[in-house]
């Protein structure tokens, strides 16, 4: 009984010695011939094109190049009412995606978290004020 398949024995390039086989060299490998015959992948793109496509899709969904700014101009004597009116003028998505910058009327200064911190401190005091009856 022979361990050589019958079809392989009659193959023109088949020999019983692996050294003499024409298929044993890497240049004649069927896998290599198939790989070289393939066309380049249609999805292969350079990195810059992928990055532009990524940013285009982000902007289409409403996410820009970083957070925008929502500037609140607050009067200290009408803190709760003024804040409520200004915040309600924006949509939920705008409030979630943008950063709040707070300035007080009559006070100059840049908001590097100082005025914002003071604003939220004063706002929390107003919210818990028993006069409004919120809590």
TrEMBL record:
Pathway: Protein modification; protein ubiquitination. It catalyses: S-ubiquitinyl-[E2 ubiquitin-conjugating enzyme]-L-cysteine + [acceptor protein]-L-lysine = [E2 ubiquitin-conjugating enzyme]-L-cysteine + N(6)-ubiquitinyl-[acceptor protein]-L-lysine. One of its GO terms (molecular function) is ubiquitin protein ligase activity. Transmembrane segments: none annotated. Residues 91-135 form the HECT domain. PANTHER family: E3 UBIQUITIN-PROTEIN LIGASE HECW1, HECT DOMAIN UBIQUITIN-PROTEIN LIGASE. This is HECT-type E3 ubiquitin transferase. It comes from Gulo gulo (Wolverine). The lineage of its organism: Eukaryota, Metazoa, Chordata, Craniata, Vertebrata.
């Amino acid at each position: 009984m022979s361990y050589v398949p019958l079809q392989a024995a009659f193959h023109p390039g088949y020999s019983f010695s692996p050294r003499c086989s024409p298929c044993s060299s890497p240049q004649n490998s069927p896998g290599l011939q198939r790989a070289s015959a393939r066309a380049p992948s249609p999805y292969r793109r350079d990195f810059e094109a992928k990055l532009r496509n990524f940013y285009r899709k982000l902007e289409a969904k409403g996410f820009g190049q970083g957070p925008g700014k929502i500037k609140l101009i607050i009067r200290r004597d009408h803190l709760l009412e003024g804040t409520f009116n200004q915040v309600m003028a924006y949509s939920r998505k705008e409030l979630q995606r943008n950063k709040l910058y707070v300035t007080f009327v009559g006070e100059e200064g840049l908001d590097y978290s100082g005025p914002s911190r003071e604003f939220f401190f004063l706002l929390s005091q107003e919210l818990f004020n028993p006069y409004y009856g919120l809590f």
